[in-house]
Amino acid sequence: MMNNIEFISAGAGSGKTYKLTEALAQALESGAARPHAILATTFTVKAATELRERARCWLLERGRIDLATAIGQARLGTVNSVCGQMLKRFCFELGLSPDQTVLAEGQSKRLLKATLAESMDVAAQADLVWLTGRLGIEQADWYKTLEGVVRAALDNDIAPAALRAMGAQNAAAMLANWPAPSTGPDPTAALSALLSKALSDVVSYIEQTQAAGGKIADNLFKGLNALQKLERHFREDRWCWPDWIGAAGLDAGAKVKTLLDPVKAAAQAHESHPAFHADVRRYLDLVFNLAADVLDAYEQAKKALGAVDFSDQEVLLLRALRTKPTVREALAAELDLIMVDEFQDTSPLQLALFVELAKLAKRSVWVGDPKQAIYEFRGTDASLIAGVLGAIKNWGGTIGKSLDTSRRSVQSLVALTNGVFASAFEPDLTPAQVQLQPQRKDIPDQVALLNWNFESSRNDSDYLGLGRAVRELLASGVQVEDVDTKQLRPIQPGDIGVICRRRDQVDLAVSSLTRWGIPSASPRSGLLGTAEALYVMACLRRMNDPTDTVATALVLTLADGTPVEAWLEDRLKHLAADGAKSHEWKAKGDDAHPLLTRLEELRPTLTALTPQEALRLAAAESQVARLVGQWSATPHESRNRMANVEALVDFGKTFEDECVAAKRPASVSSMLRWLDELARADDDNRATSADNSVTVLTYHGAKGLEWPVVVLTSLDATARTSLWGVRARTVGGFDPQQPLANRFVHCWLKTWGKRSQPQAALNAEGSATGQAMKAEALAENKRLLYVGLTRARDMNVAVSFVRSRGPGRAWVEEIQGAAGLLFGDSGSVALPDGRQVARLTKSWSGDDCAVEPPANAPEACYWFAPRPRVQGVPLWHRPSSASGGTFKVVETDAVGVRLSLAGTPDMTSLGTALHLCIARAGVLGVVHAPEVERILTTWAVAHSVDGDAVCAQVEAFQTWLARRWPGCPVHVEVPIEADGPNGTRIRGRIDLLVDAPDGWILLDHKSNPGGAARDEDLAAEHGPQLEA
């Protein structure tokens, strides 16, 4: 039975956070909800913190200090953090440890990747790689497909056994759109023979034509090249299925058309080729079986670590809610209010979780905007959300009053959005449900819609003119309303957001802005490829491994700008020298580089540092702060570079945390390998500047953000169906109370490579499944455009990249009538509701876009005056390292007989062994020959000195000691720690300490292989430590 559920639709900028705050505070104030009985989930930690603090302020303003204090008892956070709290709450009921290690998203991603690589059967992997080539699939794509299937299964709680069966089910559903497999002679042998004959005939025709003085057309030569390539592939049995499509479309001109017709006809058989059907079935069967194996191995890997990931938290809680009566009873008694923010972005697992919780809580409030459901690529399924929302009334719940007043955008932008999307979401949403009412007025004498048209012939030049256009906008005198003061002021870089569809376009936009000296901030990968990160990492690598000459070369190049030719010549000269050691290049000798010498000095300290401390040491010693000032054209760029260095150091802490979670040691070498993995996976995000900068990010990244001015780019990006990829879907009936029932991992193969689609693939796209997925993609694309158009407070800028065929506006054209409202000449735009919106259009030719920005006026740069390095006094001072002093030799006494040595023993080991023999005798009070022999053997010097002679010498020393201080206690190996000069601490051990009547006698015994002639030298060398 479902309890009281209310869904509130909150339009873009309509004050959703205010509504949540109000509902939360009023529930507390009225007594409808107890503080500890409230559960609220948000999309981000920042949103949860904001909700708690706003509710606390609301209560304080009403004098409810008690409730403002008690709100800390409420469970507010992201879905995963709330799940973690509840699992701890019921850990004993569920048989879980109360101290679960939770893998962060990055950790689980890397563990899954490692598990995937380790768990794959070698033969199956080889078979999969071969099939990938035969089906014309990119070699990198099979791994992505496998990873996608695993992730979809995890996100939808699909068991490995059920997953295995889905390979055959997908193959059957996909191949139902292809002709049935043929019977009879082998089509491959027939096509191969026809290709050989056609090649011979075409070559003969060309030779005859040339012999007769005729001219051969270019298209005939191109056709011949294609024919030769295909004939070779089939003759050598290296063909793939896209080659059949290529053969079916062979064209070498009208003159040889009849020669190629038999080949083209035979190639049509590929759609009904029995081997094609078998390959598709085998490929999908392998993928889904491997994915199931990975699921099992991933589960075992997490158990070995004693860890869970975010999906596990949701699954464990969901299963507990469904199968544990004690958990259900406890939560039914203690849940007064559940609030869900951004409901449209919940994953299938989370949706099932909220449905179960709604059965227990006294009241549930779900807030979201179906028009902003844009996270299909993360596994969100808008159809599930719509299905559950459609069932609320049948459950006895209510659809609350929509929040339809836009507090964000000015009147013209609201009217424009209403006009563009009025009918875009039908039949799911009526025009009345889409409409927003403006609260803000237009800025006087200022347009709210700009059109920028950039002429461009290639994708990589699309954004070339963006920097110039933004520079002109900043200088145009445009006014924006300050979000804090509500007063108009001139536009600044920080008031602008540039939105792109893809990450590579973000890079192009940032490059264009940087070229025109406009500060920008963008959350994007590539940190470890920046000069500052490469430099600090090179210093760390050089400290960690003195033989890493690549790191040495990087340090020389980046620190001093040494040309490659110069250091390479110097390197070869060093290697050519007699007795040269490779790793000593530039670290020792007259031409040593001071930084490399310093790094060599610091290398022994790495063993005592954590990986993050090592990174911080490398950053400090490298003097990277001085270099980034030299590399940067503006202060903003310099700050960005230093922020990247700090982000790099922070990665050290992330690595240490992962090592703790994985219960493995954290070393500098393993951190360096981990950072390389981050870079390969594009998980090395750069720092984002918080100063006055233009923000550049993707449409998905812009969700939940706003700017006074938003520049909308990539408006030619059309909807792409996920039919030829991996996607979780509901197959069969949908039960809103069981959203995960009948979930299925869809995976159809794109088997034509870069060739044109075969008719069977077009049939598949026209099938019920194909049409449904096409409609889903189109709806998602519309929602994404809605998110983009509703980010601006004061002005939208619609950008068109103009090709020879016309401006790229295909995305906007997916919505009927939208292009006519957003694009056109300068002037007034009539909206469907009769309102008028002013539009200003400006165009830049290709030459205008490519114009060089004006040179910046030179600025004087300053840096700290260099000073000699000050060596810090070590905290701990060992007496054995002391030097100097005012000691003197009072007397010299001979004790026993000097030992004779055999061979060339290791003198350090021999000295340590003799030292231990004296200490052992001092502890026992007598000399035991077996003890002496054991010590000598342990230190591998028994063959170098006579054991009996050692016993005699130790006994002679004991006799001398007893005669010199008769009856006095002798303490052996006495540890000592005391205050030293300049705030240091003295720490060491006294070999022998005699407690004499008139004071303490300190004895330090040394082994001297040099004979009596070195006595004075030894006294000078070791005397200072007795004084210390």
Core attributes:
6-stranded parallel beta sheet, 1028 residues, 9-stranded mixed beta sheet, alpha/beta
What does this entry look like structurally?
The protein is of the alpha/beta class and 1028 residues long. 49% of the residues lie in helices and 13% in strands. It is globular, with a radius of gyration of 38 Å.
User: What radius of gyration results from the CA coordinates?
Assistant: 38 Å
Helices, by number, come to 40
Q: Describe the biggest sheet?
A: 9 strands, mixed
Q: Percent of residues in helical segments?
A: 40-55%
- Average pLDDT taken over every residue: 89
Summing up helix and strand content along with how strands pair, one would put the structural category as: alpha/beta
The global form is globular
Strand content: 5-15%
Task: List segments where confidence is low: pLDDT < 50 over at least 5 consecutive residues.
Answer: none
Distance between the termini: 82 Å
Could you outline the blueprint of secondary structure elements for this entry?
Layout: E1 4-9, H1 16-30, E2 38-42, H2 45-61, H3 65-70, E3 75-78, H4 79-89, H5 91-94, E4 101-102, H6 105-119, H7 122-134, H8 139-155, H9 160-175, H10 187-211, H11 218-235, H12 241-248, H13 257-267, H14 274-305, E5 307-308, H15 310-323, H16 325-334, E6 337-340, H17 348-358, E7 363-368, H18 382-391, E8 398-399, E9 405-410, H19 411-421, H20 431-434, E10 437-440, E11 449-455, H21 466-474, E12 479-481, E13 488-490, E14 496-500, H22 503-515, E15 520-521, H23 531-544, H24 549-560, H25 564-576, H26 594-602, H27 611-621, H28 624-631, H29 635-662, H30 668-680, E16 694-698, H31 699-702, E17 707-712, E18 726-730, E19 743-747, H32 759-766, H33 768-789, E20 792-803, E21 806-807, H34 810-813, H35 818-822, E22 827-830, E23 836-844, H36 846-850, E24 876-877, H37 907-924, H38 929-938, H39 947-964, E25 970-979, E26 985-996, E27 999-1003, H40 1015-1027
Parallel strand pairs: 1-7, 1-8, 2-3, 2-6, 4-5, 6-7, 9-10, 11-20, 11-23, 14-16, 14-17, 15-16, 17-20, 24-26
Antiparallel strand pairs: 12-13, 18-19, 20-21, 22-23, 25-26, 26-27
Helix pairs in contact: 1-2, 4-15, 6-14, 7-14, 8-14, 9-14, 10-11, 10-13, 12-13, 15-17, 21-22, 23-24, 23-26, 23-27, 27-29, 28-29, 37-38, 37-39, 38-39
